[in-house]
Amino acid sequence: MNVIAILNHMGVYFKEEPIRELHRALERLNFQIVYPNDRDDLLKLIENNARLCGVIFDWDKYNLELCEEISKMNENLPLYAFANTYSTLDVSLNDLRLQISFFEYAL
What we know:
This protein is of the alpha/beta class. The protein has helices at 13-28, 39-48, 59-73, and strands at residues 2-6, 31-34, 52-58, 79-84, 100-105. Helix content is 38%, strand content 26%. The longest helix is centred in the first third of the chain and has 16 residues, at 13-28.
């Protein structure tokens, strides 16, 4: 079974409800969903779980720094960031090589 980690410390309904829907959809596709407690817990999970096939997180909270840390550990691990339509994405061309996809939500 493949594992997806979700850093879901968003705290507001309009961010958490899409995560709940995504969780249910991924379970129907036979993914196991885990919720690391924090950034350090996620990094330990990446280091110790070969079945991890993706990470989902809130861009406004965790941003590019987390992506870079994960990429150093596993440059092929897909990352999925939830970002507000109006979020400023301060990334360089070099950063675009990261394995990251964005999902936008509107307030």
